[in-house]
Amino acid sequence: MMTAMFDRIALIGIGLIGSSIARDVKELGLARDVVVSTRSADTLKRAEELALGTAYELSAADAVRDADLVIVSVPVGASEAVARQIAPHLKPGAIVTDVGSTKASVIAQMAPHMPDNVHFIPGHPLAGTEKSGPDAGFTGLFQGRWCIFTPLPGTDAGALATLRAFWGALGSKIDEMDPEHHDKVLAIVSHLPHIIAYNIVGTADDLETVTQSEVIKYSASGFRDFTRLAASDPTMWRDVCLHNKDAILEMLARFSEDLAYLQRAIRWGEGDKLFDLFTRTRAIRRSIIEAGQDVDVPDFGRHSLEKKA
Ligand SMILES: NC(=O)C1=CN([C@@H]2O[C@H](COP(=O)(O)OP(=O)(O)OC[C@H]3O[C@@H](n4cnc5c(N)ncnc54)[C@H](O)[C@@H]3O)[C@@H](O)[C@H]2O)C=CC1
Ligand SMILES: O=C(O)C(=O)Cc1ccc(O)cc1
């Protein structure tokens, strides 16, 4: 157990991400008090049953009072509502951060409400699963995974160092980039794959000549991989699509163009074009494996943080 980095952490939203942070904070002893807050009474009760915090508040305003670190882990579309609720009650000098999958929109929603005497530092841990809710979280989720900060100009270096140290304690590797670039990168590596998965599973579900039971019975592992992504939380992914609209539409336009090329090559029997593309993409997979980034979701991070070397 480490010495506490914070007297009091407030967790606003206690789903997969919030509850995984809570579990790590508890296991590592990173805070003396952890106040958990979420919108629904049922979820808050479940968080208490799971002993995820030391105090539980339905009101986000009450939860952030006296907190040195506030972590907002709600669907990105709820960011402004949360910012409005907490802003008047934040402790001077507090660090306020988030974990949202899109960054420019979260900044636009939250920054205008943040008082000058707090440090607002947007963040995004690149770790998760298709599951949601407080039962879905687990210790070690962030171990060995990237956490990207998109700090605003003029961010206090000390506050940024403290937040880096916090995520470092959870085992994350840290990067910084500007929010628009973050949103483009994530559009291609995360948002598009989910949209493609939702689409292909929807297409399979709509077929008339192949029945749903055949799709289920004969689903090869390629299709099964898509169904895992397509089982991700609908609220979260609706919000990602609506709040990273421009970058996603740009990547979808590129994707459609490339798909048309592929379609044409298949139609005209241009095997060399297919072979060349499939060779190029195989190299990307090799590079990911060589870079040690080939963590499979069902297994990653499930070891205890205590077992960390
Ligand atoms: N699921 C994943 O794999 C990852 C998700 N993220 C981001 O983390 C954030 C949270 O995602 P999850 O934990 O997966 O979602 P989740 O659905 O498991 O949990 C969301 C939590 O937010 C609460 N909530 C919703 N609206 C609220 C509001 N207006 N006020 C207070 N609480 C509210 C819900 O009650 C729940 O506790 C999202 O912004 C998502 O984009 C980031 C990395 C990975
Ligand atoms: O389940 C998966 O494969 C994921 O990709 C999880 C994930 C979802 C959203 C994020 O912003 C980051 C990670």
Task: Report on the architecture of this protein.
The protein is an alpha/beta fold and about 300 residues long. The protein has two domains: about 5-180, 3-Layer(aba) Sandwich (Rossmann fold), CATH 3.40.50.720; about 180-290, 6-phosphogluconate dehydrogenase C-terminal fold (Orthogonal Bundle). It contains twelve helices and nine strands. It has helices spanning about 15-30, 40-50, 60-65, 80-85, 105-110, 155-170, 180-205, 210-220, 220-230, 235-245, 245-265, 270-290, and strands spanning about 5-10, 30-35, 55, 70, 95-100, 120, 125, 145-150, 175. The protein has a six-stranded parallel β-sheet. A three-stranded mixed β-sheet has the order 7-8-9, with helices on one face. The longest helix is centred in the middle third of the chain and has 28 residues, at about 180-205. It is globular, with a radius of gyration of 21 Å. The protein starts with 5 loop residues before the first strand and ends in a 19-residue tail after the last helix. The relative contact order is 0.12. Bound molecules: 1,4-dihydronicotinamide adenine dinucleotide and 3-(4-hydroxy-phenyl)pyruvic acid. 1,4-dihydronicotinamide adenine dinucleotide (NAI) binds next to helix 1, helix 4 and helix 10.
